[in-house]
Amino acid sequence: MPTTLALTVAYDGRGFAGFARQPGLVTVQGRLETALATVFRQEVETVGAGRTDAGVHALAQVVSCVVESDEVDTGTALRSLNALVGDGIVVTGVRMAAPDFDARRSAVAREYRYRIAPGPVPPMFLAPYSWWVKGTLDLETMRAAGSSLVGEHDFKSFCVAASAEGIRTHRRLYVVEMGPETAMGEQSIVMRVVGNAFLHSMVRAIVGSLVEVGLGRRPAGWMAEALAARDRTAAGPTAPAAGLTLWHVTYPEECWR
Fold this sequence. Notes:
About 20% of the residues lie in helices and about 30% in strands. By secondary structure, the chain is an alpha+beta fold. The protein folds into two domains: about 1-105, Alpha-Beta Plaits; about 110-250, Pseudouridine synthase I, catalytic domain, C-terminal subdomain (Alpha-Beta Plaits, 2-Layer Sandwich), CATH 3.30.70. Strands 1, 2, 3, 4, 5, 6, 7, 8, 9 and 10 form a ten-stranded mixed sheet that branches.
């Protein structure tokens, strides 16, 4: 009898060509599926909650899979997977899920966080997980600009243009907020973006645009104008991958066994 599992996975995106499996490249999904095949002695196909790009990190990516086994010892599976996945990936949880659970389709919200290290001196310990911006950011103006994105909108201006062809580009954002944070003794600004789903590079395009506002290159009202334009060239640059982390994915309680 098949068993549906949900894995919670953390990874350092620097060593991977993104989450999704790609022939000849090292990916998070590829490593996970190889480890799962060894543990369960069968080919295992996985589905991730978010297809993070090369260099993007995750604290709590959720990955679903179905294995042909009546009973799974989740504790043993957790230990075995961590022994096999290799450097840069940690499986932090293995959970029994409902038979129809799908990590992507069953999710009701996803949270991303983006870390910026502003100022004239680059960060030391935060460098692999942040974007060094050589200037002072006006947080209040950035917050005013970001507030125009909350709600359901067409985010075509904030995604890779080629990826938006022929698909619906409306998404709902519940939270766009930012504030100072100290980590490893270094100062940074963390942007928190929560939505029902995201387009390709959507968070990074939003962050890049908000930094334009924070540096005083654009007024706060420009963000709403860029959104209304439904044209990628109307918004700001795409922020680097290093600062982005898939932080959390939310599911209804009925997803779990």
